[in-house]
Design a protein that fits this description.
mainly alpha; about 325 residues; 17 helices; single chain; two-stranded antiparallel sheet
Length: about 325
């Protein structure tokens, strides 16, 4: 019994497809690493993001709908979205209000001073701690520096007020040196210094942790190569350390610029008083007083919307400049 075998024709001898026949399409199989497969595989990890997403949805995005009252007349007890459309009436009101421009200048001053002093100090402190070789000293300085971050803003403001009171410890020290007591809390000229100083004390240690974590990602071979080339410690810091933590620096700088206009509402509200309004009153505190204390909700919403738009423009501009200059950005 014999079996016949059919051999495949040699290459190039197959008959061409008939004219007019539809081309054969290749069916692409879905990627194995698609988002659905990843969700089924790592659903425990993705579930950790549910609560943060709900938080931002409920307390950040849904309240944006209320910005419509900046263009409508809102009356307490009436409609949630205002009673009557008034257009840009409240925008024109605060743009022609001298008090608004005063608090706008105060916001720029305090925001600028906070950015200039509070941003580089954690970098310097992280570089100094990175040079410390005694682990016990390094851990002690880290613990002391970032401990104020875990204190409530109310406690920080209370400590600041007690230290700077007329009969407080600082004025007692000035009295022993022969100086008259200084009314730090009542003098408008001291408010910006007090705020920036307390902000440095509270936030410098926490920012240092972020930069110390970034320093651990720098390859030791780069330092070895720099030493072989004859670089001293300062040159190693300039050419190896700072470029190594540049992405972290740029990211935090963009975030700080984004919150430039919304600087320190809670702390300022606790530290300032009517005597320090000329230098301490900010847009955020002015919005609070206009909306909550004076019941001018539409006027306050218009100012708050103006502040948010400026913040959006600042963070977008900073992100674009960072992407074009150093190649690092948030998105």
């Amino acid at each position: 019994m014999s079996t016949s075998t059919t051999s495949a024709p040699p290459p190039g001898t197959q008959d061409p497809p008939p004219a007019g026949a539809a081309p054969r399409l290749r069916v692409r199989t879905p990627a194995r690493t698609g988002w659905r497969r990843a969700l089924r595989r790592d659903w425990q990890l993705y579930s950790l993001a549910v609560l943060p997403l709900l938080f931002f949805l409920v307390f950040r995005y849904l309240p944006m709908v209320g910005n419509v009252i900046a263009f409508r007349r809102f009356e307490p007890g009436g409609s949630l979205f205002g009673e009557q459309w008034v257009g840009l009436r409240y925008v024109r009101m605060f743009l022609t209000d001298p008090t608004f421009w005063q608090v706008f200048r105060n916001t720029l001053w305090i925001g600028g001073l906070t950015l200039v002093f509070c941003f580089p100090i954690p970098i310097v402190l992280a570089l100094l701690l990175n040079e410390v070789r005694r682990r016990s000293l390094k851990r002690f300085v880290q613990s002391v520096s970032y401990l104020p971050h875990f204190l409530s803003i109310v406690i920080v403001a209370g400590i600041t007020l007690q230290m700077l009171a007329t009969d407080g410890p600082i004025n007692h020290m000035l009295g022993r040196l022969g100086h008259d007591p200084i009314r730090f809390i009542q003098e408008p000229g001291w408010f910006r210094t007090i705020y920036v100083g307390s902000e440095i004390w509270q936030t410098a240690g926490w920012g240092t942790i972020l930069y110390l974590a970034a320093l651990t990602t720098i390859d030791d071979d780069l330092y070895e190569a720099a030493r072989i080339d004859g670089a001293n410690r300062w040159q190693q810091i300039w050419h190896v350390t700072l470029p190594g933590i540049r992405p972290t620096m740029v990211t935090l700088l963009i975030l700080n610029i984004g919150t430039f206009m919304a600087v320190g509402f809670e702390k300022v509200l606790l530290l300032y008083n009517p005597l320090t309004y000329p230098t301490g009153d900010l847009i955020s505190t002015y919005v609070y007083r206009s909306g909550v204390e004076s019941n001018s909700f539409s006027y306050a919403a218009a100012i708050g919307l103006f502040e948010a738009v400026i913040g959006l423009v600042l963070i977008t501009t900073a992100n674009q400049l960072s992407r074009r200059t150093v190649g690092t950005s948030l998105w």
